């Protein structure tokens, strides 16, 4: 479908560090257009060095999904056998998507909405999705939750935010603003700590965990394969969901962060490093957590399956119970563990907030200072987050997780692959990469971008719609009004 493609040389989104001819053309453009912001902004920030970008990508992709979501997903989807579909999905969807989103951002030097000037007919849809989705989601949930909780005997709806948790929430957003107040100039420096500190704690917990009695039984329980589950479509669907949740593709953050790169930065190397580290970190976290849970089962005389809780319960119930039974410095390990969770959460939040900040700075408030844009988005995020610290916050979390963080991402990514591979054109994308990196993508990338990944995403989207069921929380379905 290359006849439908837009020639990359005709696009208005000229890269900032393009060859000298392109630079000269940019300088000749009207000064009024440059002051208005957008593709030709000459004062756009850049990472101080390539390592800051790499650390920021690691801090975003290696997050809470690796620590509490991946281990339980592996456990309930065939144990070690789950790694087969997960690795297949990583190779055929995860890596190609990660590399492609990096390429889009770096070539255009634009945020996740403005970059869609490569196919202008799709720009409005993407912009409305990213700007209206959060507000419409939360406005709907307030009316829905009254009905949900009344049906379950909670007569006062979701309740009021707790003071202590609200203060903790506010402190977290203050921390996020402090990291993002100067754009990539400040977040790049903080990325070293946000990316590396969790590994220090994780290795300390791993070393301590595997030396505990019963740890081997817990790890074997985690990796023991059930190959019969490989024929179950839900296992493959879980692999796709986990891959998206873990890598952070489809949210626009990768495009945003890559847009602050130098034009010739080697994003291929970074994409391979981050996607590989993300998988290894998930396995490391799984062995750590189930090793400690194995000790908890050993001490209590129960089986490992009885002490495992899914979702947030794994991180905030099972794991603290296990740490409390440590004979050596349990308080210290508990503090380190929750400090690691905080660091992981802040690292992911910085990337997501940066996406919104870049959108506002590029398109909505081009003349506003970075600190003010960041402050405004943090205040909105803190106010919306109050709903999660109410007694019914878990109900809202379940709704938002699915209707804003799972299904819409499948739709966006499927559309993204179709637009880039079949509308913008595979040849144009490969020429863009060759212009940046001096090397044309190989057969693997051309096959995945042009055929395998978009077709697979369409199949996954159809399967998701065909098998959709009423959402449940704690085994109880939400009423019709919730969907």
- Structural class from helices and strands? mainly alpha
Give the DSSP E fraction (strand runs of 2 or more residues).
under 5%
Task: Report the span from N to C terminus.
Answer: 37 Å
In helices, the fraction of residues equals 55-70%
- Taking strands numbered 1, 2, ... along the chain, how are they ordered across the largest sheet? 1-2
Determine Rg (CA atoms, Å): 23 Å
Q: For the residues shown, what is the average pLDDT?
A: 78
Q: Strand count, sense and closure of the main sheet? A: 2 strands, antiparallel
Categorize the overall geometry: globular
The tally of helices reads: 19
Q: Give the topology string: H per helix, E per strand.
A: HHHHHHHHHHHHHHHHHHHEE
What is the total tally of β strands?
A: 2
Question: Which residues form runs of ≥5 with pLDDT under 50?
Answer: 1-42, 125-155
Brief account:
The chain is an all-alpha fold and 483 residues long. The chain is built from 19 helices and two strands.
What does this structure look like?
Residues 14-26 have a biased composition (Basic and acidic residues). Keywords: Amino-acid transport, Glycoprotein, Ion transport, Membrane, Metal-binding, Sodium, Sodium transport, Symport, Transmembrane, Transmembrane helix, Transport. This protein has 483 residues and is mostly helical. 70% of the residues lie in helices and 1% in strands. The protein has 19 helices and 2 strands. The chain has helices spanning 20-27, 31-35, 50-61, 64-76, 83-108, 123-151, 163-180, 184-210, 215-223, 233-247, 253-258, 267-300, 304-307, 312-324, 330-364, 370-385, 393-403, 407-437, 443-466; strands spanning 472-473, 476-477. It has a two-stranded antiparallel sheet with strand order 1-2. α5 packs parallel to α10 and α18 (407-437) packs antiparallel against α19. 43% of the residues are buried.
